[in-house]
Amino acid sequence: MQRGRSRLRERIQQRLRGDAPPADSDAGSQAADHGLPFDYRVRVLVEIQEDPDELALAESQLTARGWPVREPKPGEYAPGEVTPSYVPRIVEVRLIGARDGVAQHALHQVMDLSYDRELALHVRDAALIQHRPDPHITWKLHPKRVPTPRERLKEWLGIESGGTEEDPQPERVIRIPEDAPEADALAAAASHSPAWPPFDPLKHEVRPARINDPSPVAMAHGFVAATPVAIAYLAIRSVRAPSDEPWWVSVGTACLFALGGLLTGHLVAGVLFVYRQSTALRTILPWALPVVVPTVFAAVPQVGQSVYAGYLSAFELSGEVSTGAWPDGLMAGLWVSLAFLFGLLAGVGASGWVYRTTARSGTTFGTAVLIGMYAGALAGWMLASAVTDRAADSGDRALAAAQEYRTPGAYYGLKADFTCVRPKEKDAPVYGGTLPAGRPLLTFGPKGDRVSLWDPKTKRALSMRLEDASFVPAKSEHGKAVCPRTK
In 12-82, at which residue ranges do the beta strands (DSSP E only) sit? Predict the structure, then answer.
């Protein structure tokens, strides 16, 4: 510690005297390597004022951004083109994003940094660093003996067999040029040191390795994920109260739910695998949850409006009725949100199992999870639509009851009543048709200064101002709503 402080004090004194030693290009490159992810590297030629302080300041600012700085190699610049009293430097700008326009973007990144920090730096050139693609292909070692039917089945399913202790199967892959014959692969397998798994040409052979091939195991995991989603969809659309179904239907439904629960547990294990594999997720989730939870309580009741809209669509009153209170809207929206979340987690869980059991070299973890998220979002949208469709079915049943002048039951705080309308004037304005006399109309309550009504006889929705009529609650006779007789 004392040695490090003395060296730092010596460097500061050298800077103050103006005779600081030139920066080591290799040290600058190592200091700039922060381990941050990047997609492309751009080599930018800059020139910095030949002053120790300006040079040290510019290099420190560039390396602080994660961009290595070094002296140019012969041929990377023309000495006659450098501005007098300036020295050239090569900056490697590392960027994330699209390939098109990346060189211009890197150039402007350095220019913006120079402008913001007022550096004595000029940007002269920028070019994308490109390399020839890897021309090699992968070969894998296999036993030469004829595989048994069980081993063939395992190979078809994508399950690698490790062999036995007496005759282990070599787990080894090699890379050779893509146009090379099989003899080169055999020679490469036999030419390595004994530290590698032993290769016997009499017992082993080489074949091109399966990389990213569709695997039956991957399809099986996709089927496992689709099964609980399908069960959830059928449950949302079809399951009714047990008293409305025969006993054998109830038993079959219970067995189906048990199967869905087991497969859901399997998917939860896949989600946990994704969580453990993703460093970013483990970092973000602990502080993101406290931020998301309060937002959920505000957003979920708004999602519940889709349930109310589906229910009121049967009466053609969507958007014209005051919906239930906040707790009722929260419960209505919770079903839609949970349905979508279940589908999304099913896709993510399936992607975790697919990556865990069938991943090959070249398959990235992020790609597998991204595909699972897209598939899960589609499944979640399907389940959420099933919830709103079931709300529409409930609206149809309420409509059938209202046509017989029977009061429908409450629906998540949305309560309908029959009322008799007595206009205060003969020509009271009514939107949607003529106001009937002598028979009750269905209403879900006022909204602002207006009230929406539904006529069971004409099956039409009406609307009028509250101040234009008086409203008398209908009375029930033989289970049906009727208007009280006027004196």
Answer: 40-49, 69-70
Query: Tokens for 371?
Result: 């595909």
Q: CA-to-CA distance for 168 and 291, rounded, in angstroms?
A: 53
SS3 221: helix
Express each pLDDT in 401-422 by its tens digit. Answer: 888 888 888 888 888 889 888 8
Nearest-10 Cα torsion for 326, 466, 439, 456:
-50
Taking a C-beta distance cutoff of 8 angstroms, is the pair 339, 229 a contact? Answer: no
| Intra-chain end-to-end CA distance of the chain, in Å | 104
> What is the C-alpha separation between 318 and 321, in angstroms, rounded?
7
DSSP state of 414: B
State the Cα–Cα distance between residues 84 and 391, nearest whole angstrom: 78
Structure tokens at 36: 């941050």
Decide if 273 contacts 354 (C-beta within 8 A).
Answer: no
d(CA 408, CA 477): 16
Count other Cβ atoms within 10 Å, centred on residue 6. 10
The average confidence (pLDDT) of the chain is 78
Q: Which helix (H) or strand (E) holds 465?
A: strand 460-465
**Bridge partners, 41 (sequence order):** 94
The pTM assigned to this predicted structure is: 0.59
Q: What are the backbone angles phi and psi of residue 318, rounded to the nearest 5°?
A: -60, 130
Instruction: Give residue-wise pLDDT tens across range 296-353.
Output: 888 888 888 888 888 888 888 876 777 777 888 888 888 899 999 999 999 999 888 8
What pLDDT score does 107 carry? 93
